[in-house]
What we know:
The chain is α/β, with parallel strands linked by helices.
Amino acid sequence: MSELDIESLSKEKRTFAPISDPRAxxxxxxxxxxxxxxxxxxEDPEGFWxxxxxxxxxxxxxxxxxxxxxxxxxxxxxxxxxxxNVSYNCLDRHLENGRRNKAAIIWQGEPEEDVKVYTYQxxxxxxxxxxxxxxxxxxxxxxxxxxxxxxxxxxAIAMLACARIGAIHSIVFAGFxxxxxxxxxxxxxxxxxxxxxxxxxxxxxxxLKPNADEAMKKCPSxxxxxxxxxxxxxxxxxxxxxxxxxxCTHADGITDVCEPEPMDAEDILFILYTSxxxxxxxxxxxxxxxxxxYAAHTTQWVFDVTDNDVYWCTADVGWITGHxxxxxxxxxxxxxxxxxxxxxxxxxxxxxxxxxEKFKVNIFYTAPTVVRALMREGVDWTRKHDISSLRLLGSxxxxxxxxxxxxxxxxxxxxxxxxVDTWWQTETGGILISALPYATTLKPGSATxxxxxxxxxxxxxxxxxxxxxEGGHLLIRKPWPGMLRGVYGNPERYKSxxxxxxxxxxxxxxxxxxxxxxxxxxxxRLDDVINVSGHRMGTAEVxxxxxxxxxxxxxxxxxxxxxxxxxxxYAYVTLKxxxxxxxxxxxxxxxxxxxxxxxxxxxxVIQFTEGLPKTRSGKIMRRVLRKxxxxxxxxxxxxxTLADPGVVQxxxxxxxxxxxx
Length: 661
Ligand code: PRX
């Protein structure tokens, strides 16, 4: 994020006292309760988490030790030896506890008339069937299954089916390209790929299976591909490898009876790839018992989901938010989770509010980028619908600027509904810092305070504790059940990325400060990761995509402030000798990045340049590039180590020529 945004956050002084829960049912009803719980969890973390794990999760057999850990090694085990099954917890037990015929998933497709409701019983039946299909395809406990699907119920069904038989799912967001999918399948050596013929998006039908076909050409680990018919497209099916979902789930011998596999608490539940500061995305590993406990716990306390609520998280299941807060958290609690296939802007900018009105949504969780985009369309769109069913709003993925927060509060929350600004990451499995809806006084732009059991601290580069209002590295000093347990196939990277620089503590990669009231203000990433519309993108990833193009000699990518997306991608590109700069080449490079990574990685600006600001030792001075991209042409700091200081002026001229400012 830009310095300017940080500035605007630090000037924010407004506060909003909590309202009392109209139903008097809140799990954490006031600040006193929060303080007591925080103290309890701090003094006796094992007792606190053991209680939560017993209350929220059904265990086939108890664990031997609540927590064993060494954050230096690192090695973290929660509830080891305990046996459970995630799909049992999300489905079977609700068949006996009065929720059998309750809606588990309400699915709203992109076309208005496409609605499906799965009761817990119906979802159970579909999950068991698909689990049997996976078994019939030779999938065993511990095998990896790649899910490359749009936001359709089959995605949730496939996740739970994997969990049922102990297979590890690796979901690849359907907006990623064939190359990205291929890299992820190869890294995890997935045996089966589940995909669809197409994605429906903003009125268009975008073929998906061709990407999977392209990827699978170079993935010898894949034996089978199962294809959901979403759009009725003709797709080539490879004999022996490919089959249609609707056919294989009803093939001879496939029943709807499938016993859940007892899993150890520390068996892997899923892998989810996320961007880091080096070129290759890493497979974040989450395990079974701790993750499920944490997802359910935070869904319950932060979103205050109760049995009668309709709860809607607008994320895509391809990201961690969808894993924890569309599928695992809500279903473990026996809640009703709304799953939406469409986008906020189509067919009109009132689509979200129309969906809220249609299903009388009570709890609504979205990203600041969505709020900013809708804010720009004007408030009349929100007034077209009765959204008075809403009682709680959430935000995630990037810092929410106070202006967007106020708009969300005033127009969506009628000036009275609590907003929970939730800070967390793919690696954390669930929310770590957030308001509790009926307890916390809110400050627009602050994620407020760590949840009970979360030991967050801000430290300086030398590891000492930062003082009040001093920006520093956001670290977590004690383990929590939802934390990652590894980087798939790469223990070295697990240690060096998260536990090395500040030994014995988890390094989030974010900068933050804590104000005089103990409120956390997240300032954004401190590493070479940019946050585009709440999606994490490694600058190195985009750079390596650019340099793999035949015309490019060198590339440097930085984030630049963007009014709607938060940040967007700015690429400085040096062409090979003899290649001419042109608008066509710029277009071709954009298209190239889309094919190499996916549309979310498309550079907003590509500036051709003769040279990059490098130190004499050859290191690119990125802060100079970030400033120029943001249109800030002074205060570059110490540039005396640059090999050729003249490059800076050339870059500024080039930027002005390109963008006019
Ligand atoms: O920089 C933080 C930002 O998103 C990053 C994590 O991205 P990802 O792993 O994709 O997970 C996104 C959804 C949990 C963080 O390092 N971030 C996330 N939530 C917030 C946030 N920044 C500020 N405020 C938040 N509420």
